[in-house]
Amino acid sequence: MSRLIIISNRVSAPKARADRASQGGLAVALSSALRETNGIWFGWSGNAVDEFSGEIATQVVDGVTTATVDLEEQDVDEYYNGYANRTLWPLFHYRIDLAEFDRQFGSGYERVNERFAATVAPLVEDGDLVWVQDYHLIPLGQQLRSKGVKNKIGFFLHIPWPPHRLITALPYHRRLVQSMLAYDVIGFQTAEWLESFHHYVERELGATIEPDGTIRVGERRVRAGAFPIGIDAGEYDALLETDDARVAFDTLKRSAQGRKSIIGVDRLDYSKGLAERFNGYRRFLEEHPDWLHKVYLLQIAPPSRGEVHTYAHIREELDELSGRINGEFAHVDWVPIRYVNQGYPRGGLAGLFRAADAALVTPLRDGMNLVAKEFVAAQDPADPGVLILSQFAGAAEQMRDAVLVNPYSRDEISDRIREALNMPLDERRRRWERLAAGVRSEDVHWWRKSFIDALTGSDMRGAAGVESASAES
Ligand code: GDG
């Protein structure tokens, strides 16, 4: 088996075996591939230093080798806070109004990608497979090629690929996309993002798309496919057995006092549609006074990317909105929204998911959305809760048995909440069984294997199967 080299912005340092439950599913899945192949996970350490040295710090924990490098303050500002989070993230989530185009950001982004390539290239040996993760590192493949790396290199984008007309607003968009032709395989979360990519390369780069998904631009051939990421469903079962999960489950059930509970768990990010969700829930309370006192929304929203100005703004907006809704509807013994602005341990979240009667997962745009899958995995098969899912989450392509909703419409959110809270047990079970079967079979190990198979053989059968399997379900 070829050795795997994973490169991502940050490295999720493996934890000792006893702490695995506190690690995310993605980190668990990638770590197991690294362990099996004796591979390396390379990325930024998270530290800022005065001067870039390219010195690599390696660590081996539980059989997984990580290699990290420090960046300069200016790199962090321009590449991470700047181009990645203030240019690409908003633009790729269809928020061109929030995207900032700044020459400094662009040059910082290219500089860091070049620094990553120069640092990691000497670690790459003949026969290694290199797998680059996400929007921070789009041009890395080309940079690696320029350092003489001839190995197979794959790229996976965790966020949406925007429609052609949107991405053309990005200065030097052609240069960015052209750099992607250096990869052997490019993976997207869904058939929709793949289709947008196809449109782009056909229109802007004069590419042709062959029936097996190969993109041909002149002499260059690149495979692109949809590889929807999943969760580690087995690990989720184990999480539900932890003390954290049991305590959280009991606490929620006890404090609900027989009321129905709806849960939302999202990083505090404008793409997650939190204000729209609160407003939709408010519409539900206005339209259905019979539900007052009988339901509440528990919204957990740990802060993210505090250094980016927009995130401070969204926090203020939600504080105010939840305060206003609670002020308007609450009584001494009931508040309609419990808004928690902090993170929870993973086991605790799993217990809360299991205790809830419904989940509102209503991003305005999301590459996939793993919370939707975690909620399904956490349910009691005998009495499962209902997943209300945005039609604009990548997950909606696979999870057709969720209650799908347009997250921009308060009326629709209100209607779907009513539908979920009134849904008879047999329908809840029917929907959940199909959802759970998908979450279990198309899990994170399946995702990793389909991508790696595609990269090794550059064999796209796994990816093509994804699209047809999803369409049938
Ligand atoms: C990107 C893409 C894509 C949340 N709050 C807490 C907590 N979480 C965990 C969830 C889930 C993860 O964070 C969030 O994953 P998502 O998929 O929902 O969203 P992004 O962070 O935006 O991830 C996304 C993903 O990459 C993978 O490709 O699905 O579309 O945007 O696992 O449970 N975890 C803990 N405490 C919290 O309070 N421990």
The secondary structure category is alpha/beta
Say which CATH homologous superfamily of the largest domain is assigned.
Glycogen Phosphorylase B
CATH architecture of the largest domain: 3-Layer(aba) Sandwich
Low-confidence stretches: 459-473
CATH topology of the largest domain: Rossmann fold
Number of domains: 2
Total count of strands:
16
Q: Work out the helicity level.
A: 40-55%
Name of the level-1 CATH class of the largest domain: Alpha Beta
Q: Looking across the biggest beta sheet, what order are the strands in?
A: 3-4-2-1-5-6-7-10-9-8
Strand content: 15-25%
Global outline: globular
Helical run tally: 17
What number is the mean pLDDT? Answer: 92
Q: What are the distinct ligands in this entry? A: GDP-alpha-D-glucose
Computed CA radius of gyration, to the nearest angstrom: 22 Å
Alpha-carbon distance between the two ends: 33 Å
Give a short account of the largest sheet: 10 strands, mixed
